[in-house]
Design goal:
Blueprint (H helix, E strand, L loop, with lengths): L7 H8 L7 E4 L5 H8 L6 E5 L2 H13 L6 E5 L13 E7 L1 H10 L9 E6 L3 H10 L2 E11 L2 E10 L8 H6 L1 H6 L2 H23 L4 H21 L4
Parallel strand pairs: 1-2, 1-4, 2-3, 4-5
Antiparallel strand pairs: 5-7, 6-7
Bound molecules: S-adenosylmethionine.
The site of S-adenosylmethionine has 16 residues, from strand 2 and strand 4.
């Protein structure tokens, strides 16, 4: 992967960016995504935010090598604190766990003024992002799921919503758009997840009973039912 040839995962994120948007990529590491977007002329300006020194230096180096210092500004800082309100239209956050992405959004809420689009790619636990979006006036507009190097990734596109979007527990867990589509990758992901959850369920059956265990067993059972119901017709 480099700034000319993105991984399929980052290309899916890039494809959600519209022409002429101004983008901030938070947790940008090598700044491949913003450099790619500018080099392909989709956008003319971007900000790459990075909190860790090593990846921040890699991003600076990449932007210099690509001769894009006029177009991609690399800023060092935690999450959305690198942004001023109104600076960008689109924020991308990719390659982290869902809870960390949600934390970055929650801590930087006040920096999202003027932002119209969030493109989020959690490596795990997309449910925490969906919940955050619903609770904070955003709406899930689209979702993609893909497999690359034997890993499965989800990408969520969110926009501002005038009314609170309502999603069922099943849609929150599996993704409203992905659940409707039921692609082969989606079925694979949740079939594998189901196998893991059933193993945990078996272990729980053998553990000593306690009120907290019984609560966990119930939650797990609900989750298993939601997944089974979603993939049933394919099996
Ligand atoms: N976004 C790139 C991608 O998808 O390929 C890089 C993903 S890399 C696994 C995650 C990056 O996010 C790391 O470089 C890490 O230092 C950075 N990061 C983690 N927490 C962050 C935060 N709160 N603010 C800014 N960057 C953060």
């Amino acid at each position: 992967m480099n700034s000319n040839q993105l991984s399929q995962r980052l290309k899916t994120v890039a494809d959600f960016v519209g022409e002429g948007e101004t983008v901030a990529d938070i947790g940008s590491d090598h700044a491949y995504l913003p450099c790619y977007l500018v080099k392909t002329n989709k956008i003319s300006n971007a900000i790459a935010g990075e909190v860790v020194e090593g990846p921040y230096q890699s991003a600076l180096k990449q932007v210099k090598e690509d001769e894009l210092t006029e177009h991609v500004e690399v800023r060092k800082g935690n999450g959305l604190t690198v942004l001023s309100p109104g600076e960008v239209t689109t924020v991308t956050i990719a390659g982290m766990g869902g809870p960390l992405i949600s934390e970055i959004l929650e801590n930087g809420k006040n920096r999202l003024e003027g932002v119209q689009k969030l493109i989020l790619q959690p490596n795990i636990s997309a449910i925490s992002i969906r919940q955050w979006l619903l609770d904070n006036g955003w709406e899930i507009k689209d979702e993609k799921i893909l497999e690359e190097d034997r890993k499965i990734y989800e990408v969520i596109l969110a926009g501002r919503s005038s009314e609170r979007q309502t999603l069922s527990q099943q849609e929150l867990l599996l993704g409203p758009v992905l659940l409707k589509e039921k692609s082969a990758v989606f079925i694979d992901k949740w079939t594998n997840e189901l196998i893991q959850l059933k193993k945990i369920q078996n272990q729980m059956e053998r553990a000593e009973a306690s009120p907290s265990l019984s609560e966990k067993k119930n939650q797990l059972e609900q989750k298993i039912i939601m997944i089974e119901e979603a993939i049933r017709w394919n099996r």
